[in-house]
Prior knowledge:
heterodimer; A: Lyase, Ornithine Decarboxylase, Chain A, domain 1; 2 domains; 9-stranded mixed β-sheet; 8-stranded parallel β-barrel; 13 helices; 22% strand; globular; B: mainly alpha; 3-stranded antiparallel β-sheet; 4 helices
Amino acid sequence: MKQRTPWSKPVLTPHRPGGMNKFGALRPQLHQSELDGVAIPPLLEQYGSPLFIVSEKRLRENARHLRRAFSTRWPKVRHGWSYKTNYLGAICNVLHQEGSWAEVVSELEYRKARALGVPGSRIIFNGPWKPAAALEQALLEGAALHLDHLDELFAVEQIAQRLGRQVPVGLRMNFDTGHTEPWSRFGFNYESGAAMDAARRIGASQWLQLTGLHSHIGTFILDVRAYAQQARIMAEFMEAAERETGCRIEYLDIGGGFASRNSLQGLYLPPDQTVPSFEQYAEAIVTALAEATRGRAALGKPVPALVLETGRALVDDAEVLVTRVVGGKRLPDGRRAAILDAGVNLLFTAYWYNHDVRPLQPVEGLAEETVLYGPLCMNIDTVRASVMLPPLNVGDALLISPAGAYNNTQWMQFIQSRPAVVMVMQDGSIEPIRLAETLQTLTELERVPDALHAPFPNPTPSR
Amino acid sequence: MDNNQDKQGRALELPKPEHLMRLALSDSGFVFDPVTGNSFSVNGSGLAILRRLQQGTDLPGIVASLSEEFEVDILAAERDVIEFANLLRNTFR
C-alpha cells in the first residue's frame, strides 16, 4: 500500500514586500510542553482545560532576585506582597515564606491575609476605602496603615482616641515625577501642599504619630528615572515633615509598578529590550535615595527603611495559562482564526498585553497571521488580535504566558466557569491550589423564591 | 445535478476554474498569479487541492483523493477543503 503523507491544514500565504526588517520577519516556531520539567499534557488530562499552572520555583527565584537586588544596595529593605496581583493562598504563602509582608488594599484582603496566618504587624494596609471596623482591627493588630484622605485621618484619630493610645500611621502621597502620568487620586498631593497639611495635622494630634510615607507612582513603569525622582521627592518631604512636625519617619514605601516581562500592546520592541531588570530599578532608586538622605547620619538620624510593593514583576512569569483550540475559521479578510476554551474571562490582561503564545506540541504547516478568540459570545473576547501561528487543529493546546499577574484576581465568572489552578512544587509534584468551579459554584449563593421555583408553572402544550 | 455538492446536498461554490487555471504552480509550493502579479506560498495539502481544482475535480472527488494521498479522514479533509476553497475564491477573482 502506498505510504500516505501526513496532513496539515492547507495554507496559502501571500508574499508581501516590506515584511522583513532588521529584527527579522517571523518569530521562530517555538513550542513548549513542560514547565519546570513537568509534562503539561497529563495535567490537562487530569485537571481539564483551560488550566492555570504556577511555578513555585520561579516565584521563589523572583522573590529572592528582587530582595538581592535591593538589599545589596540599601541596609533596610522590606517587601510587601501585593495581594491584588494574585491572592491565591498558596501564592501568598510562598511569598510570605520568602519574607514578604502582605500588602492589602481592602478589608477583604486584610481578612484574607489574617486568615492565612499573617500577623497584623506584617500587613501594609493601603487603599482608598478602609471601613471603620477594618481600621480599628488594623490599629489593634499593629498593621502599617497608610492614610489616603482627610476623612480617613480623622476616622483613625477618633478610633485611637477611643482606644486611648497614640497610633503610628503612614501618609500616602502623590506627585508628578515628570516621567510618568501622575496618579493624583490616591493619597495627599505633594505639589499643592495637601500632603504637608496632613503631616502637620498628624503632628498636631496627640493620638497620631507619623512614622512612614507611601506613594505609588503608577503601573508597568519602564523608565527607572521615574523611581529615582520619586525617591528624591519622598526623601525631601521626609526631611521637611520631620523638621516641621518633629516626627521621625521610619520608612519610605515606594509602592509597586515594576514592569514584568510581558509585551505591552503598542510597544514595538519586545520586553527583553524594554523592561528594566530588578538591578536597574534598584540602582536608580537607591542611588537617588542615598544622595537625598546623605546628611542624616551627621544629624544622628537613621536612614529610613525602603519598602517595595512589587507584585506584577514577581508573579507574572511564574504562571501560565494552557488552553485548547475548540474551533477554527477563516475570516473574511483572509486571516485565520482559532477559537480557544479560554478568553478574556480568564486572561483579563489580554486587554493590554500581547502574550506569548506557543503550541504545546510542534504543529506542522506554515505560520500565518492568526487571531485567537476566546469562548465567550462577546465580540470583545480576543486573546490575541494577531499572532503568527501554524494552522491549528481542534484539540491542539496552547501555552499562554506570562499570566500570573492580575488574572487570578480580575478573572470573571462570566458565561464560563473558572478553571483549576495547579502549582508545580519545587520537588516536581503537582498541587491543585484552586479547584475548577462548577455549576454549584455559580448558584450556591442564589436563592429562588418559592413562587419562582418552577420555570414553566403551567403545563405547556407539546409542540 | 451539480457535481459540486457536499454531503448535505447544498451546493458548494468552488473557485472558478478559469481563475485557477491562470495560476502558475511549482512543485515546491510557489504560486504566481499573472493577472495581479501577486505571488504566494502554498503548503503540500494546499498545493494538492489547487491542482485538483485546476483539473476540475469536484468536492467529493477532491476529498476522496486527498484521503488516499494524505493521512486524513474524509470529514476532516472536507472541512479543510471547504474553508480553503473559500479562501481561494476570495483571493483569486
